[in-house]
Structures are given as C-alpha cells and as structure tokens.
Design goal:
It is a single chain. This protein is mainly α and 144 residues long. It folds into two domains: 2-86, Hypothetical Protein Yqey, Chain: A, domain1; 95-142, Orthogonal Bundle (Arc Repressor Mutant, subunit A), CATH 1.10.10. The protein is 79% helix and 0% strand. The chain has helices at residues 2-16, 19-39, 45-68, 72-86, 95-109, 114-125, 131-142. The protein is globular. The protein starts with a helix and ends with a helix. Pfam families: YqeY. This is Glutamyl-tRNA amidotransferase. It comes from Candidatus Blackburnbacteria bacterium RIFCSPHIGHO2_01_FULL_43_15b.
C-alpha cells in the first residue's frame, strides 16, 4: 500500500535531514489518513491517487498565487513539493501519446461532442494525463 511506502520514505527523509521532503510526505500521509477516516475504510489505489492529485493541484495553485504576488521563494518551495508528490503518481503520458488517443477517439465518434470525447479519452488514460492538457488538445482537435 501507498501508506507503507510513505512511512518508509518519511523515515528515509528523517535520517537524511531532508526537511522539505519530510514535511511534504507528512502532509500527504496526513491527507491520506484523513480521507481514510472520512470514508471509514481503507482507500483503494484509485482513491489514493485522487488524494495525491488533489494535493498536487493545491501546490500548483499556490505556485500561481505566489508568483502573482511576487513571492518567488515561496513559489519555488511549492514547486519542489509538487515534484515530490509527482513521484507517487503514475508516469504521465507525453503530449504525442495524448494527441494520438484524442485523434483515434474523435475519428471513432465521427462528431464534435466535447463531453463524450473527453469522457472516453480520460477513461483510456486512467489518470496518466492531466485533465486540463487533454481538454486543451480535444478543443484544438474539435476546433472549439
């Protein structure tokens, strides 16, 4: 399970004195634990990935906010935390791979229904691509 891997990584970070990594891993562990308490059962792997993506999205939004506010040092810290969180997500597809799947799906559907195309493409990706990237590529393909 992911929580076991996280606990091992936390111990390694403690021994290595990597405070940024340690705090990021502890926050992730806490978020997973809180979600598990809320659901009153162990989380599935997909549910764990949802929590990690939520944490990653928070970091990305914080980076944008800090950069708008001119707080470069805090933006860098959030960016570093996001990189640590990325380690726990499945490998992301390249834009070429996403484009190929989008092209195949649009050709199969013979239409320009954005919602249907997105649903099918995201189902094929199984969390290996960012929804915003996929949406942008689908819009480009459908010329919306």
């Amino acid at each position: 399970m992911l929580t076991d891997r996280l606990q091992q990584q936390i111990q390694v970070a403690m021994r290595g004195g990597d405070n940024l990594r340690l705090s990021t891993l502890r926050l992730l562990y806490s978020a997973l634990h809180n979600e598990q308490i809320a659901k009153m059962r162990k989380l599935s792997e997909e549910e764990e990935m949802v929590v990690i993506r939520r944490q990653l999205k928070q970091r990305q939004e914080a980076v944008e906010a800090y950069e708008k506010g001119g707080r470069v040092e805090l933006a860098e810290k959030e960016r570093a935390e996001a990189e640590i969180l990325q380690e726990f997500l499945p490998k992301q597809m390249s834009e070429e791979e996403i484009g190929r799947i989008v092209d195949e799906t649009v050709a199969q559907l013979d239409g320009s229904d954005f919602g249907r195309v997105m649903g099918i493409v995201m189902g094929k990706m199984k969390g290996q691509a960012d929804g915003n990237t996929v949406a942008r590529m689908v819009r480009e393909k459908l010329k919306i």
